[in-house]
Amino acid sequence: MTEATDVEPEGGLPIGALVGRNVARLRAERRWTQIELRERWVQVGLAWPRPKLSALESGRRDAVSLGELVLMAIAFQEPLTELVRYDGPGDREIALSPASSQVTAEALASLFGGSPPTGAEVLVFGPEEGDASLVKLGTPVQADVELAVRLGVPPQEVIQTAMRLFSGNSLHQERDARAESLLELKGSDADPRAYRGHVTRELSAQVEKSLRDRGILS
Question: How far apart are the C-alpha atoms of 17 and 24, rounded to whole Å?
């Protein structure tokens, strides 16, 4: 029999695994068997077979839908925050879907509690293993997204590449900062749109080259 441990596995905890832990906790608090919990879920419209419930509780499901989460909360008569509660050490990153961005457990709980996760950070993954950067929510990335659409790659790959090239700035942030510097040098009569366009093309070319060098683009 494997002994329980307080040591958390490395990497982002899948949202499904977090929900599974809380489902198991809430069920144990009520002294319900999995069969009894499944019956309650069926009553509210969540017709999961028992093996699927077992997989959730054992951490073998990476994600759950919002509708499923709501029905679970109704069955337990608990707020949604109880299903995304994290009681481990520190403020753990939670993976919202496989190979996606992550948010901190605190930000996730805040969001479900009715408060916007102000100042929260999202862990944006790049195309390479272990390649990730923290991006504050609200960071301007419109130029990054537009380049990603043009190149046909996921936006997070452009954002991650830009942050590596530009000392933590997104392409959009770096474009604005450089354009502003050029305007200060040229004076107030300069056209800001012309400088933004020129800088955007220059920086986009650097990002595109990096993506090609790393085999993301052919």
Answer: 11
- 195-213 pLDDT, tens digit per residue, is 788 889 999 999 999 999 9
Kindly report the pTM of this predicted structure: 0.56
3-state secondary structure the chain: CCCCCCCCCCCCEEHHHHHHHHHHHHHHHCCCCHHHHHHHHHHHCCCCCHHHHHHHHCCCCCCCCHHHHHHHHHHHCCCHHHHCCCCCCCCCEEECCCCCCEEEHHHHHHHHCCCCCCCCEEEEECCCCCCEEEEECCCCCHHHHHHHHHHCCCHHHHHHHHHHHCCCCCHHHHHHHHHHHHHHHHCCCCCHHHHHHHHHHHHHHHHHHHHHHCCCCC
Residue 173 to residue 200: CA distance in whole angstroms: 10
